């Protein structure tokens, strides 16, 4: 199934690979993918040299190059040699897209600037935390430390950080076996919520959203290395108990 109203804005990241592989696996393909990077030639070379592994990964395979997945699935794509989502090049590309919904999978540290919100587009972002309780950065670890679980929320991006209208959200348990939280489990749970949002679109013919409640809203900042270490130890301890 091709989702003609959806385009994927795809940075060369683990999150994009998780999104793309989940959409392909669930046969919910974006109408277009805009691949943007400051090393497009490197991405092409990586895809050309890739040999598929026979071993299936439980969550997603971080080793599969983005361009390999796109070519294999027959998804249309554009290549943009620019890493900055706010560049004039990107602005021109987005203005030319026919898609209404843009799934944003960007590079860390980039925040969409005001001019992008004046287009007739809706940017879908899946935040790695339950909103509004866990706004901000590295919220997966804060969520574990306080709730002993993880979460993700699909929103329409707005100028306020993680303050956009909510589409869907879901909580997830601690994984059953050791896994890299930053580069595997967190992108994976985001991909699950993305599919849930797409399912909502298919059910309603549009993406219905609602304003975030103000009660309980909390914004977090990059977690201190010590706190992150304590969170990882807690996750490993929880997994260890299950194994025993």
Please provide a written account of the structure.
This protein is an alpha/beta fold. The chain folds into 2 domains: 1-120, Rossmann fold (3-Layer(aba) Sandwich); 126-244, Formyl transferase, N-terminal domain (Rossmann fold), CATH 3.40.50.170. It is 37% helix and 21% strand. It is built from 7 helices and 9 strands, in the order βαβααβαβββαββαβα. It has helices spanning 14-25, 40-49, 66-73, 88-95, 139-147, 181-204, 225-243; strands spanning 2-10, 29-37, 77-81, 101-105, 122-127, 135-136, 150-156, 166-172, 219-220. The strands form 2 sheets. The protein has a 7-stranded mixed β-sheet with strand order 3-2-1-4-5-7-8. Helix 1 (14-25) packs parallel to helix 3, helix 1 crosses helix 6 and helix 5 (139-147) packs across helix 7 (225-243). The longest helix has 24 residues, at 181-204. The protein is globular, with a radius of gyration of 18 Å.
Shape: globular
- Please report the distance between the alpha carbons of the first and last residues: 43 Å
Runs in which pLDDT lies below 50 for 5 or more consecutive residues are none
Q: How much helical structure, as a percent, in the residues?
A: 25-40%
- CA gyration radius, whole angstroms: 18 Å
CATH class of the largest domain: Alpha Beta
Structural class: alpha/beta
Arithmetic mean pLDDT: 94
Biggest sheet: strand arrangement:
3-2-1-4-5-7-8
Please describe the biggest sheet, giving its number of strands, its sense, and whether it closes into a barrel.
7 strands, mixed
The CATH topology of the largest domain corresponds to: Rossmann fold
What letter string, H or E per element, gives the SSE order? EHEHHEHEEEHEEHEH
Q: What is the architecture of the largest domain at the second tier of CATH? A: 3-Layer(aba) Sandwich
The number of distinct β-strands equals 9
Number of helices: 7
Q: Give the total of domains.
A: 2
Name the quaternary structure: single chain
- Percentage of residues in DSSP E strands: 15-25%
């Amino acid at each position: 199934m091709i989702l003609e109203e959806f385009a994927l804005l795809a940075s060369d990241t683990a999150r994009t690979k998780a999104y793309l592989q989940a959409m392909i696996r669930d046969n919910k393909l974006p109408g277009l993918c805009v691949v943007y990077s400051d090393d497009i030639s490197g991405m092409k070379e990586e895809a050309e040299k890739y040999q598929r592994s026979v071993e299936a990964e439980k969550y997603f395979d971080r080793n599969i190059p983005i361009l390999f997945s796109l070519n294999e699935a027959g998804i249309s794509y554009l290549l943009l040699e620019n890493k900055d989502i706010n560049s004039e090049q990107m602005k021109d590309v987005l203005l030319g897209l026919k898609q209404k919904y843009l799934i944003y999978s960007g590079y860390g540290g980039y925040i969409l600037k005001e001019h992008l919100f004046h287009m007739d587009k809706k940017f879908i972002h899946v935040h790695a935390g339950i909103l509004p309780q866990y706004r901000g950065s590295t919220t997966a670890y804060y969520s574990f430390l306080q709730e002993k679980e993880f979460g993700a929320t699909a929103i329409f991006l707005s100028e306020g950080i993680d303050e956009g209208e909510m589409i869907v959200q879901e909580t997830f348990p601690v994984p059953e076996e050791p896994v890299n939280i930053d580069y595997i489990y967190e992108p994976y749970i985001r991909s699950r919520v993305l599919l849930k949002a797409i399912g909502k679109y298919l059910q309603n013919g549009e993406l219905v959203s609602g304003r975030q409640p103000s009660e309980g809203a909390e914004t977090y900042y990059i977690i201190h290395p010590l706190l992150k270490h304590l969170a990882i130890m807690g996750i490993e301890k929880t997994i260890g108990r299950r194994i025993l």
